[in-house]
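Regression test case RT-17, inverse folding.

Input:
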């Protein structure tokens, strides 16, 4: 009896855990696994829910068969909606530009850009963005360290820092960002002086 209650609890909680997993920013090498975990949890919850429908046990308050039927119908609809949103957002989402990882430093950074939709040039529409994410310790997830309405230039390593120029920046006060490779700190408004 307790085993079936744990299965029932899994059926109720799994769709919400799956949505949390798909909305967590995973590092690029784990994004396929992220999608597989999402689909696997939904399918497992659906399969166990169907088994419960075939062998229902009464709940003290309401009929378990009606409850599970409505719940599975609702969670399947949410699952299909989430897949649709992921497919559409994949077209307009940030694209990985570059991975920044230097030997001797444990921090890994990811530069993402969202450019204008073709056939426009990258900045023609005026609605482009850049994002800098950092990997969290040993976990395969990231946190956003910096976002701007800009595109990123080529990173330049200077000792234990990396300077990234901001190109086509709509915020005229920031010309570049500097990343400390030791503590993953990001400093804005860092100016690069060039001898032209």
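Golden output:
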């Amino acid at each position: 009896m307790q085993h079936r209650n744990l299965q029932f609890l899994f059926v109720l909680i799994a769709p919400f855990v799956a949505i949390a997993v798909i909305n967590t920013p995973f590092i690029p090498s784990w994004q396929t696994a992220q999608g597989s975990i999402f689909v696997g949890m939904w399918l497992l919850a659906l399969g166990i829910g169907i088994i419960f429908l075939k062998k229902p046990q009464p709940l003290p308050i309401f009929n378990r068969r009606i409850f599970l039927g409505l719940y599975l119908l609702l969670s399947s609809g949410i699952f299909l909606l989430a897949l649709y949103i992921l497919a559409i957002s994949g077209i307009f989402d940030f694209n990985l530009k570059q991975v920044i990882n230097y030997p001797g430093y444990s921090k890994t950074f990811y530069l993402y850009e969202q450019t204008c939709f073709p056939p426009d040039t990258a900045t023609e529409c005026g609605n482009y963005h850049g994002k800098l994410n950092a990997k969290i310790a040993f976990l395969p997830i990231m946190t956003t360290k910096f976002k701007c309405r800009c595109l990123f230039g080529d990173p330049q390593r200077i000792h234990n820092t990396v300077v990234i120029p901001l190109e086509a920046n709509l915020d005229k006060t920031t010309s570049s960002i500097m990343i400390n490779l030791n503590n993953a700190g990001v400093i804005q408004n860092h100016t690069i002086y060039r001898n032209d």
